[in-house]
Amino acid sequence: MTKMQKLAFFLAIVGLLGGMVVPAFAAGSFTWQCDFADRCLSRDWQTPNTGTHRVQVYANASCPGDGNEYRVRIVRERTFGDDLGEWSRYTCGNGGTKSRTFSASGTFHFDIEKADTNNTTNVWTLKGETRYP
Questions:
Q1: The domain spanning residue 69 has which CATH number?
Q2: Which residues constitute the domain of residue 55?
Q3: Mind listing the pLDDT tens digit for each residue in 56-110?
Q4: Angle 18-107-77 (CA atoms, 0-180°, nearest 5)?
Q5: Rounded mean pLDDT of 112-130?
């Protein structure tokens, strides 16, 4: 069987199985934007895989008003008490990447909040990308 025939065969199988092939290779990523006065809660993502999750905040943050630091944590959701993890602090405008490795699959999200001010008058805007196994 030639390489082209093998490729055609593989694509035909993938087409027949549809979404059934996707869960075995569920690694993914998504970009996001958080506009918040106090705290940002991301959308959920799910993966059947274990490994390292990364939340990257781009350096083009807008943090007007009081304060210039935010903190990030990656959370694994559980039925009886989420696995919250540790916060990591970053300075607005410098960007940063929070990584956390999990030995279990499941549903995850990240939290971002202002770290050095309680002032909720000004809205901060952070953008970034999340990658997961």
A1: 2.60.120.510
A2: 27-132
A3: 999 999 999 999 999 999 999 998 889 999 999 999 999 999 999 999 999 999 9
A4: 165
A5: 96
